[in-house]
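Hey, quick one: can you model this chain's 3D structure?
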Amino acid sequence: MAMPPEIDHQVVAALYQFRMATAEQLRVLHTPGSKPELMRRRLRRLKDEGLVEDVVLPQAGKLRAWYLTEHGTRIAATFPELEGVTSPPLPEDKSAARLRLGHVLAVVRTQVAFVAGARAAGDECAPLDFLPEVYHRYGEGRDGAVIPDGLLHYATGGAGRALYRAFVEVDRGTMASEKLAAKLIGYARFHDHHPIPAHLRRTAGALSVLPAWQQHYVVFPRLLFLLADTGEQAARQRIRDLQGVADAHPLVARMLMSVKAGAARLADLEQHGVNGPVWHALADHTRARRGAWEL
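Sure thing. Here's the predicted structure for all 295 residues.
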């Protein structure tokens, strides 16, 4: 069974937004009812047309990841749904692409889990409802910004329909646990930041009425930490470290009085869905695990 041509458009758009993906990830995102070979065949044809390139994953046999060529990137940049989305620089060569694969594919895997979970629950989360690396500056210097791995848009279905946004951090256990936990402090500083209007910059202590984040959001997005490629014991320790910062840092504790935050293993999210009882609350770790929107 041939897939309609609009799937080409969707696949190219996804590769522009997510940088790289496997054929199976693209199949689940766009054609979950189709056979895996159909997506692989489509990607090979897009490669023949000069739109995509592929690289073999390290230690994964013949499994390949796909990314756009310069020609494919130029075409995707004209898509209306990608207006305002900046695609990262293309890999210099296949070696450069291979070195970037681990984290990028973990981020795509996360969105695949949200999309698949939303379908199963009757909720709404489209393939492009996860915008990677949204940049928000709140101060000077290298540490004066938050850059989550993704900004998630999600809508629960049914009579109790609700719209959610969440900053998503994906951790593969490659950074120190303290560095992961310190990201909470960055979000707390962004949450607390009040920009000084230009005409009041010389007036000591003058602050705008609204915090900076309300220039972008009606409600501060939830904070969701996903632990990928991490065993249960290591994941529990990293979650405890996050909860420790939530308890000990006054700015974080104040933020979490109004901002919902939780952490979960990506494998549990894939198995039980976003609404499954897999999320550990960061502010009150005596509570039982619950769904992402019940934190």
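One thing worth noting: The radius of gyration is 20 Å.
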